[in-house]
Amino acid sequence: MSVDHATVRRIAHLARIAVTDDEVPHLAGELNALLSFVAELDQVDVAGIEPMTSVIPMKMHMRADVVTDQAGADAIVANAPVREEHFFVVPKVVE
Amino acid sequence: MNAPAAAQTRQSKLIKGATGDWEIVVGMEIHAQVNSEAKLFSGASTQFGASENEHVSLVDAAMPGMLPVINEECVKQAVRSGLGLKARINRRSVFDRKNYFYPDLPQGYQISQYKSPIVGEGEVLVDVSPTEQVRIGIERLHLEQDAGKSVHDQSPNMSLVDLNRAGVALMEIVSKPDIRSADEARAYVSKVRTILRYLGTCDGDMEKGNLRADVNVSVRRPGEPLGTRCEIKNVNSIRFIGQAVDAEARRQIAIIEDGGKIDQETRLFDPARGETRSMRSKEEAHDYRYFPDPDLLPLEFDQAFVDALAAGLPELPDAKVARFMSAYGLQAYDANVLASERESADYFEAVARGRDAKAAANWVINELFGRLNKEGIDITASPVSAEQLGAILDLIDASTISGKIAKDLFEIVWKDGGDPHAIVEARGMKQVTDTGAIEAVIDAIVAANPDKVAQAQAKPTMLGWFVGQAMKQSGGKANPQTVNEILKRKLGL
Amino acid sequence: MTSLTDLTLAHARDLLLAKDISATELTEAHVEAVEKARALNAFVAETPDKALAMAKAADGRLANGTAGPLEGIPLGIKDLYATEGVHTQAASHILDGFKPRYESTVTSQLWRDGAVMLGKLNMDEFAMGSSNETSFYGPVASPWLPPEWTREKGRSALAGDKQGLLVPGGSSGGSASAVAARLCLGATASDTGGSIRQPAAFTGTVGIKPTYGRCSRWGMVAFASSLDQAGPIARSVRDCAILMRSMAGYDPKDTTSVDVAVPDYEAAIGASVRGKRIGIPKEYRIDGMPAEIEELWTKGIAWLRDAGAEIVEISLPHTRYALPAYYIVAPAEASSNLARYDGVRYGLRVPGKDIASMYENTRAAGFGKEVRRRVMIGTYVLSAGYYDAYYVRAQQIRTLIKRDFETVFADGIDAILTPATPSAAFGIGEKTSADPIEMYLNDVFTVTVNMAGLPGIAVPGGLSPKGLPLALQLIGKPFEEETLFSLGEVIEQAAGRIKLPEPWWA
Ligand SMILES: [Mg+2]
Ligand SMILES: [Zn+2]
Predict the structure, then answer these.
(1) pLDDT (tens digit, 9 = 90+) per residue, B122-146?
(2) In chain A, whose CA is at the least distance from the CA of C362?
(3) Same structural domain for residues B281 and B315?
């Protein structure tokens, strides 16, 4: 499998990372090198093997239905780059 | 168990196009907010209506290093809902991340259940009309996080983000494509809503968005394979769901009959114009990159956990209707009306207990519901309690008051409250059964109307006029039966 | 008396308890060392005022007899840990200015036990790297001078672009460098594929990655959730054992943390290892292994045998697949974990013409090259059509890797001895321009342990012929860190404590 330039752009957009035209060939090269590095995994017979879900076998602990953490709007927006009152502000989102 | 759903055609539901019959096929995804105090994976409150970002924990805001911990009550609510939908409960399920970027999705992914949901296949019996019941298959029910809310109308070039809703537990209930008309679609949603409200797992408040539906609509010629579907997102009233199905089906039929083809897409229903329209920004193909959330372990529980929840379930609507019919002798329609809400069913049963059930049903449905609907009051806020209404029925039954006086009494209790027995006593509303007093009234009427007496003796149906006069002169308090007897005797009938 | 900064953590603790020294003077000495070592770039934020206030409070508790197990001990904290009101950026530009309103579970347990915070330590950005060269704050220099370098040459390189100086390893490079340079008595670190053990190996310090789930991940900036684990770096096995006791423990806020009681790890130091069965996995004898690494391993085997342990050759057949599988699983999880850095709620924001371009500009500017590369590869392997071929297959292979270990443990093996790294430290700039995979190979011996969730410790085994530290790795059964401390101390004693470099940088 080989990653072409269109794929690099598609993946970059999916990951929301801007790429310049100059970066694309270089990134394609790096991704392809990595994919050939992992290609040897194809040799392994994995038929019937469960994929790992939890490396230490244990039961999932559950929390009680109690309101415990209310950080408060001040704390929630304290680090926001742009805010208005206690809202986060972003460029207009068109539905 | 079922024939493949897509193959079911119901002839009566076909609609006529310019070029022949069409069948509408609808599948639905209902998003129902789980009734819980705290969110699905955080300890923030689910309460509605707080000021912006007030009910947000560090987890909900996706602060670096924050981790989800599942709320046990939300799991229980999902299992209860699954049991109420007669569905298979999966004792092992997995939470996956659905990855996409959106400002009201702070983590950059929604925690949902993709491959292994907590609830599998089930079914719902839906009453489309008093004479028609259909069976709608449930594909699955899974737990997932709700998103936050973006406000777009506060500024021309900015959107404001409020995360109060982010992380609230939702149950996504996916139906099979078994629905064949707008009526069925509406009836299906209202039945699911009723079941969830009975279970107490979702309040079903569609105005607050606590229950909303994505409606998948396609059309086809009867007997043909499924057509291309369009998904109408987030329809938030039962009436609009019906309108959206009709509008979308009409749109699709018109396109196909014109020689066009349907593009699979996401659309919105515009209630003002009664039509659906394409969502502009969603053209870009989605690639959600689902994978199991490594911050969470698989959700596992034993059969005892399920059994305990099953044991605690309330009687569900279908069972209640059946019981109302068999135990109280009610008609299906009345039983359904009374059982449509758990609270109204409970109210009815409180009134009916130890009394004439049919009379109780009549009073609850006609007088009480009529009055509540007129005033827009919920049964839980009814000014007349079940005890008060029961007392009114007792007064009728003991012939202490007539049916007509009872309506006046109901009115008084509605407005002023109070003990119906005491009111009847205090206001002298008791029926007069004292034959002497009634005889005196009748004697006077007979004496004053010799012509009517002659008429009545010739044509006994005229007796009604005398009864009416007697009732009127006694202020409605005379016992009609006594009046009848005395009249017959006096007139020699 | 040796300088206060030369003390081991255990020794300092004893002197504090005996009131031979005060927490304040101990802290002052370290604050001064930190200042003088700024050129190493080990710290990204210094908190001297906080340190002195904490030391003063510690002195109060030492005086009134309410001292905790780490009372008055000055520590450095990897920038990965959320520290309330203090710089927390995982050495990334994208978390510009971020100061959390919360404290990670691990660090709050350290403060609960009386430790003193000197500041935040440099690291590879989001813990992605093996040389601490991907930090937004620039590379960290190892306190070890390159072979044959004079102090002067070292100092001028420090003042310049640092090229040619040795890397401290990564991603916990700031932690390893600071501990080796005696800027703190111990440091928190974290290990996703070797990020505690490899830098410890490169700097002649001790580092342990505990069993997955032993420490809470709450408040640690996530890289790859199923692999990340907190752990300490310190100057002796005993010091690591002391720190582990405070760092470990069940946390209801982390679903993947395990509810197992925390033992007194220090009590395992000095326990006999006689009769312990030590596995030597033949698959770790990789092609082109440098002779010095071979020799180190042979010496390690001899030391444990001399201490009464039984040496058994074992096979872990899926070892060679661990690193490639890791480079699918870790980037995949990272691509999702790092989606929250979007310029909306905290950190850097670079404007754009619309929301999508705001995201794209912010993330392009905020993430460094290595992070961008891993997010891209992770996005690719999870994307439609590739998920099963890459991610699911890698997770299946992970099951096989774990099974390899379970098999040998079931056969009676108590621990496994391997080299910690395939080489000694290399130079800053030496591997950055090359193929990234060359850098990834640094983790070839450590990464299997993360894939299987096991505990692993790196202990110095002596110096290479050129005079650079080399380390052995011991791998244990789940939650049997005590065995690793016992065995690790045997190696430490046999190898002789490495003499750490004199402060040529100051
Ligand atoms: Mg959906
Ligand atoms: Zn959904």
Answers:
(1) 999 999 988 899 999 999 999 999 9
(2) A17
(3) no
Closest CA to B89 of B61, B69, B117, B112: B117
d(CA C8, CA C246): 17
Q: Are residues B176 and B212 in the same domain?
A: yes
Contacts of C252 in chain B (CB under 8 A): 69
Ligand 1 centre and the CA of B214: distance in Å?
Answer: 7
Structural domain of residue B122, as residue ranges?
A: 5-309
pLDDT at B18: 87
A92–C354 CB contact, under 8 Å: yes
Q: Is the pLDDT of residue C2 over 70?
A: no
Q: Residue C162 to residues C91, C123, C141, C167, C442: CA-CA distances in angstroms?
A: 18, 16, 7, 10, 21
Name the domain count of chain A: 1
Domains and CATH numbers, chain C: 23-271+426-495 (3.90.1300.10)
Q: Which domain holds residue A15?
A: 5-41
pLDDT at B435 over 80: no
Residue A23 lies in a domain: yes
pLDDT digits (tens, 9 = 90+) for B213-233: 999 999 999 999 999 999 999
CB contact under 8 A, A88 and C320: no
Does residue A34 lie in a domain region?
A: yes
- C369 has catalytic annotation: no
pLDDT at B2: 39
Give the pLDDT mean for B300-324. Answer: 97
Q: What is the mean pLDDT of residues C253-263?
A: 97
Q: Judge whether residue C376 has pLDDT over 50.
A: yes
The end-to-end CA distance of chain A, in Å, is 36
pLDDT tens digit sequence for B445-488: 888 888 888 888 888 788 888 888 888 887 777 777 788 888 88
Which of A55, A83, A87, A90 best tests the B interface by mutation, with the highest count of B CBs <10 A?
A87
Write down the catalytic residue from C22, C108, C142, C171: C171
Give the pLDDT band (50/70/90) at residue C111: very high
Residue of chain A nearest C477, judged by CA positions: A56
> Which residues in chain A touch residue B70, judged by CB atoms under 8 angstroms apart?
60, 62-63
Catalytic-role residue among C22, C78, C120, C209: C78
Tell which B residues from 73 to 112 touch A, by Cβ distance under 8 Å.
Answer: 73-75, 94, 101-103
Sheet holding B109-112, edge to edge: B109-112, B96-99, B291-292
Interface probe for C, chosen from B52, B53, B63 (most Cβ of C below 10 Å), is: B63
B421, B439: one domain: no
Residue A37 counted as domain residue: yes
> CB B193: neighbour CB atoms within 10 A?
22
Looking at the structure, do residues B213 and B352 belong to the same domain, yes or no?
no
| Known catalytic membership, residue C135 | no
Q: Do B53 and A86 touch (CB under 8 A)?
A: yes
The strand pair at B266-270 and B230-235 is best described as parallel
Alpha carbons B381 and C292: distance in angstroms, whole number: 85
The answer on B338 and B451 residing in a single domain is no
Determine whether C275 is exposed, middle or buried from the number of CB atoms within 10 Å of its CB (0-12, 13-18, 19+).
exposed
In a domain, A33, yes or no: yes
- CB–CB contact C339 B101 (8 Å): yes
State the Rg of chain A over Cα.
Answer: 22
* pLDDT category of residue B3 using cuts at 50, 70 and 90: very low
> Do residue B294 and residue C224 have CB atoms under 8 angstroms apart?
yes
Instruction: Quote the pLDDT of residue B281.
Output: 53
Measured between CA atoms, how close is A24 to chain B, in angstroms?
21
Q: Is C336 a catalytic residue?
A: no
Mean pLDDT of C378-383: 98
Highest mean pLDDT: which of A86-90, B152-156, B425-429?
A: A86-90
Phi, psi (degrees; rounded to nearest 5) at C375: -65, -40
Phi and psi, residue C27, nearest 5°: -65, -45
